[in-house]
Amino acid sequence: MKPAVYGLLALAVIGGVTGWFITRPTALPSTVSDRLTGDAEAGERVFLASGCASCHMGTDDGADPKLLLGGAAFQTQFGTFYAPNISPDPDHGIGDWSQAQFLNAVMRGVSPEGQHYFPAFPYTSYTKADPQDMADLYAYMMTLPADATPSRAHDVAFPFDIRRSVGLWKVLYMNRDWVVTGDLTEQETQGRYLAEALAHCAECHTPRGALGGLDRAAWLEGAPNPSGSGRIPPISGADFTWSAFDISAYLETGFTPSFDVAGGSMAKVIANLGQLEKPELDAIAAYILRAAQQ
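Structure tokens predicted for Cytochrome c (294 residues):
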């Protein structure tokens, strides 16, 4: 029996080492950040397109969208996640982060301490972003007001609170491949970048599987609200009949074709996206219509 036992032990050790290696946090090469210099002025556009304030601004009525003290709660089947303070406060925000640490957090989901962030943080979308845009975003965010409000700890039960397990989740669901492909026009390509990488539209408008990964086969076709109340509407598929003009106008003004008004979290999204240039909103609209043909 001893050879069999030793064999099983060896397999267990090999499996453990392999699993530990596969689930390790993987940072960007240091050369990526080293060659970049952020432009704060350009970063404001990235800030608006990425919707940072939509989640990280304060929860009080009339909260300043540039004061990123966090606090918003996001309920999921895995627990409740709270948006952290990402203001430039050095103690409770990201004020002591380097540009490289910021890029690793946003594009790889890896904290300055070398741990996985939970994927409630939409780094699976931001990983497709141009590193220069993320460097510009970092430069801009460091110009915003600091706030010393401590971040609230997530309320996530075992085993979902094991951050190392997020490494396996990343293996399954995190990649830089575009979902909408083919012979896209220049406008559709621009819209794809804005919608898939920066604005991360799919994070809310696409259903998820049992482990929380996006169902790419039902891209933008609507999803159950993670809070358990209602449903996030489709922006693609047979049930979505808006024109390019309808989509662009909605992103700019918040008014639907039937003159209803965006509410809830979408109102915050539009408060940011609506400040982009009209050609950029038109590009997102073109992309969404192209996605419906995929």
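The two ends are 57 Å apart (CA to CA).
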